[in-house]
Prior knowledge:
Strand 4 (about 40-45) and strand 5 (about 50-55) form a beta hairpin. This protein is mostly beta strands and about 375 residues long. The protein has a five-stranded antiparallel beta sheet, with no helix packed on it. Strands 3-4-5-6 form a four-stranded antiparallel beta sheet, with no helix packed on it. The chain has a four-stranded antiparallel beta sheet with strand order 7-8-9-10, with no helix packed on it. It has a single domain, classed as YVTN repeat-like/Quinoprotein amine dehydrogenase (Methylamine Dehydrogenase, Chain H), CATH 2.130.10.10. The chain has one helix spanning about 145-150, and strands at about 1-5, 10-15, 25, 40-45, 50-55, 60-65, 70, 80-85, 90, 100-105, 115, 125-130, 155-165, 170-175, 180-185, 190-195, 205-210, 220, 225-235, 240-245, 270-275, 280, 290-295, 300-305, 310-315, 325-330, 350, 355-360, 365-370. It has one helix and 29 strands.
Amino acid sequence: MRERTDEKTGRTVRQLTDAPDGASVGYFRQCKYLPDGRLIGHTHGRPHSYLGLDPESGQVETLQFPGHVLRLTCSSGRAYCFDHKTRQVLAVERPGCAPVRLGELPEGDLKPTEIDITEDGRTVVIAERVQPPEDVNPPPGRDAAKLLAWMARPRSGNMWSYDLKEGKLTHVLHLSDRCPIHIDPSPADPRLVKFSHDMYDAFCQRIWTVRVDGSALTPIRPQERGELVTHEFWWPGGQLIGYKYQDRRNDPTIEQLPWGEYSPIPTQLGLAGLDGRERYLSDPLNHYHSHVFVSRDCKWLCGEGTDSRSFVYVAPFSMDSTRVDFVPLVSIHTPYIAFSPGQHVNAGFSADARWLVYNDTMDGKLQVCAVRVEL
Length: 375
């Protein structure tokens, strides 16, 4: 572990990894906690190794899992893994333990682009995107017309569920002019899945839930054209869904400036219930963040600044107040790219919410860093 003083905030930063090819913690909405409270990260390069990270002590341990980790369950701490070669789904109680085979995905024409598994480890949920390979990535640069044309490109998609216990494949839904993305099973209900549409966030209904048998398709926080809802995530407990909101219904710049970070409209934090109704909407935040996320005790929010605001931030949170004041903790040194997952910061809290753990570029490589959560 290395420590340094941030050049702009004066706070102490702990660099937890120094991997030759780089290392990182996963996407902001993924569960990152091992049963003992450590966070999980991974090295870059091929093959990559999983890491157990303790920001308090600075210790980093290489972990052994039987394949790609799909999910660390909040309830039991069990890890569910997928072996891409054998298509097997396996469970391990903790890293290094003997894996238990749960089943394998059926052979056939199914070409998964996203795979996840429900909290009980019974049902694999699969997103399938049908589009030319050259259309996968958005156009580089800040050309609004090209970006909107890319978002309107021809494509289709499907969602499937596979019951490992019964060996049953179910077609959950088909989308004829868009694809399902951000497949994210509920942390509380093993039959419920949250997902999004891969359209421009202000011109479509962004967030949905559906049951794994294809029933109860529900729009979450129903939108009018011009209402931008994005970067959705499960709130702790699984009864609410969080998101960022911009009301651009009367914004004449919406097509010239489709990027949320360059919009003249302020950003707010919203929470909706599973019936789709909005339950909370904050006052305008002090600026746009690539992602906003929450600690397990719901007492802290973290944010990732965008262009010209390259910091990780924290804010105290209470459902009883609509005021959210983000404070910058440390600088981010990764160059910012518009319409991308920020700078791959992926900020999240330690299990006890004493540390904010995030990715930043050090000596040309992305590494995992930590800073104490204190104002």
